[in-house]
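Lab notes, practical 5.
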Amino acid sequence: MVGMLLLAKIGWRNLWRSPRGTLLTASALGLGLALLLVSLGLLDGGHAQMIDNAVRLGPGHVVVQAHGYQQTDSQDLLLSASAVSATEAFLQTETMRRVVRGLSPRLLASGLLSSAANADGVRIMGVIPKDERSVSLIPQRMVEGTYLGNDQQSGIVIGTELARRLAITIGARVVLMTQALQPSNAAASNASGGEMQSTLLRVNGIFRTGVQAIDAHVIQLPLPAAQTLLRVPDRVTLVAVLLEQERDSPIVARKLREKLAGFPVEILSWRQSMPTLARLFRLDDAFNYIMNAVVLSVVGLGILNTVLMRVLERRYEFGLFSALGLRPAQLAIMVIVESLTLTAISLTLGLVLGLSIEHYFATYGLDLRWFFASSLPAALVFDPIIYSRLSLTRIAWSVGIVFLTATVISIYPALRAARTKLPTALRVF
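Output from the prediction step:
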């Protein structure tokens, strides 16, 4: 033990024989750790924001819909009133209320919206206003007028791009034309199925989400009005469920499948209902990990070069230690102790720098508008400011990776020091 402490003391003193080189090497590795922490924090924060926006502009963290709807997207595949009631009853139990933020039944269909100036194809979304406010972002993105009222029967809200195309403003009257649905359940079908239906509506509000597909095509109207127009009373297309935590979506989906096993429904988590978005996140994760590996590799090779040069420059010193009786293993241990001490200094610098930058981005965010002369591409992001979100697990993982990298790097210089040949090392030219 005394011998190990002595080797550690010698290693510590050797580091500060060249303070400038030690600090430069420690700063390089610390900068690598800082970059790793910042990139992971922004990656996790950006993904969390994008998931939250996507599920609130889409079908929620969990969606309950008729069996086969995900594959066919058929408007005639509808949920029965009993399936919706069973879903709502289960999600309102004491256990589920702790993880569920809100749920919203929706009736979806395609139609034609006409004004005095123009007409355009739209995606009809019948909703219950008070339920939709707890699930969707659209009620929060109103730029003109107001959102649907709970007591309204004939109001409508549309996107800014659709309002521009139809040349309409708040209070304008529009005609919505669509085809009555024919539910796949023969017992629920009626003689009016397939007939063209139309109704006169007044524009209550105009929203802007920043997503072209939504602002140009989606309209919302009260669910009773949509059911009357489509001739499907007490029927909806899906129930969107928003959770408090995204990580609970697989568990809630599994429990819903068990509860609704007797109904012809499919329950999907957001990764299943939006597979393209899930694949995009996996690709982004992989690219980020590759870039971090490249950065750490470059930094590691630079440190390996520095440590190895210091070992080669001290060949006479190692020869002298060998002459005094130090075994090759002890020489290797001394070099490894120096490297690990240097690593500890690097980790300290990296944590201080990385967590400081991460705290700034977590508090004020990274404004992507700095990097764009004009507005951001609407298809890529929903919010121009990304807030960092770095967990303790990520920090521990990052520190472990950097520590392991530095440890592996120290092995080769330590072996070179252990193989010092005594007669050659003491030769003075």
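Observations recorded by the TA: The chain has two domains: 2-53+278-425, 60-271. Residues 376-381 have pLDDT under 50 and may be disordered.
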